[in-house]
Amino acid sequence: MNLFTPINKISKIGPVYENKLKKLGIETIHDLLYHFPHRYEDFSDLIPIKRIELNKLCTIKGKILAIENSKTYKKKMTITEAIVQDSSGVIKAVWFQQPYLIKTLKKNQVVFLSGKAILKRGDIFLSSPVYEKISQKLIHTGNLVPVYPETEGLSSRWLRMILKSVLNNAKGKIPEIVPKEILKEKNFLGVEKALWQIHFPSSKKQAEKAKERFSFEHLFLIQLTVLKERMKIAQEKSVPIPINLKFIKRLVSSLSFKLTDAQKKSAWQILKDMEKPFPMNRLLEGDVGSGKTIVATLAILNAIKAKQQAAFMVPTEILAKQHFKGVFDILKNFKLDVGILTGKEDKFYSKKLKNDYIEISRKKLLEKTEKGEIDLLIGTHALIQDKVKFKNLALVILDEQHRFGVKQRAKLCQRKKIIPHLLSMTATPIPRTLALTIYGDLDLSLVDEIPKGRKKVITEIVKDRKKTYSFIKKEIKKGRQAFVICPRIEEKENDNSSWSETKAVKKEYEILSEKIFPEFEVEMIHGKLSSKEKGKIMENFKRRKIDIIVSTSVVEVGIDIPNATVMMIEGAERFGLAQLHQFRGRVGRGRFQSYCFLLTSPNAKKSYKRLKILKESENGFILAEKDLELRGPGEFSGTRQWGIPDLTMQALNDLPLIEETREKAKELLKKDFHFKNYPLLKQRLKDFQENIHLE
Ligand code: ADP
Ligand code: MG
Fold first, then answer.
1. Which atom, in ligand 1's list, is nearest to the CA of 258?
2. What range defines the domain where residue 13 resides?
3. Fewer Cβ in 10 A, N or C end of the chain?
4. Pair 116, 131 in one domain
5. CA-CA distance, 298 to 681, in Å (whole number)?
């Protein structure tokens, strides 16, 4: 047996359990050992039965006076009820759907029970408490019993049993991957001891020590992965693009506004990067409306004037069209060929024309791109299809990059020898903790300054819907426009299709267009519309032929309609702060006072605190930090699917630890880039990279 032995080789694990474990991502002995408890039941903290308080976690020790199964009247569920007594009193314990319990827990046995007492139909009982028989030696020595995240059919009890036997069998076979010198310096527990202590701690302190070690270990692996990637990139080749000051200046002076200092500084950092013979890998981070597009456009112009091609990829078709028109507008005096490639029907192309663009076939557009006749190709994911070939692509821009996966990015940059410079842009500020870990292979430029003269958007958590509607009416009569955003209706738990989102929008659209705002032009936008339809609606909105747009979250990013002054968000509690801030950023872009109304469903009282933060802060950076605090890194950046264990997720909030692991990883890579002296670490890293998917 070794650590990578599949779990079905463990004698106690048959196909049923194998499948259940696989659902948790546990396939090997290693995975199993690293499946850590999320808390411990403390059986040393006993209280007498008569001191049990409702709804509070407690542990008691008592004798079972009686235990029996019964069926609910609907005959669907088995209930196991036990009466437990200690010297102070008696309480009932109830378990659901565990008929086999009566085979384990018997009359007259003394047990520990740990759980919450609840009151239901006048009856007080411990609801599904964790149990431990006194007669059997408590698993391992101490009084702390591990509790694992619950999954259907996999009890903590079962996991404890399996883990104990696996740990016993693994004695001496668990490779230590943390370098010895670090173990020594940090006084960490060795891997085997740490595994025992994290699963079956002899004291809280030991459990903490074990956690410390594994937090370090995980962050260390992340740092090694990311830093190694960074160093690898520095060894690749790119086309060095000299800074063409003449054109840059000409572009800057053609603008109707003055660049902010933050824009100038970021642009300079980007241009400096592009001068180098190895690829830029930079993230341009700036709040909504901070003016990232123009910064990117400067880089684009610079690349094109060096006779190179540029690609500009965005997450939605609407945004692609907007950028096409916007960038085209900015660059029209420079005689460039700009094409757009999105859904099947798009084939615009500007042919060195000053004020307009013409339509060519998609085939032609691809041909021209391959021949190098298109200077800049703007588009959605369509850009990464194999059919799309560039002659000399030297710069890739990804707008709203947090919405792209690493694979798409890699694919767009895929080249045999020459790698394009990469600039990603995002309005979702990345907290420093994440910037130093999972985003650590990127250089950062900040546009941390909003152009002067913008009015602050007034944000309200709405109590009176009617008032809001009449307010919107007034705004529209003044000539302004409004957005209404609907979250998807989550009818079924796993239904994350755009279907239910579409349904919500259709319903809202009917109500608004027929009942609330019959006198106005109301339109809807959702994922089921074709790109042409969406484009047309946005175009009409821009031309003020439409007063109100009811939409799914597709308007979230990038859309620029300065005349819109109202953003009304239904079910606001469903969205993260960063996302709400994005929605809010759709208004307040012109000279009019703008408003953001947050509506919540009646049972969303808890989210009030969160929404209040949004009301009080207009700073995307603060909001991102708060989001991280309140929802954790997984929810924050949609990184649940990265396969990072909870413990690491917690460690991702720990800035000092992050900085330390980063230093240690740097040191090690400097000393031994290929891990010649650390074969076990090398092996583990390989496995880690296969199983973890950093965005
Ligand atoms: P974002 O950073 O959210 O992508 P955009 O690039 O779309 O922002 O810019 C938002 C708006 O601000 C655009 O209409 C743009 O023309 C304008 N803008 C950009 N930079 C400045 C500036 N320095 N002064 C005034 N307006 C600016
Ligand atoms: Mg933008």
1. 23
2. 1-41+159-174
3. N
4. yes
5. 43
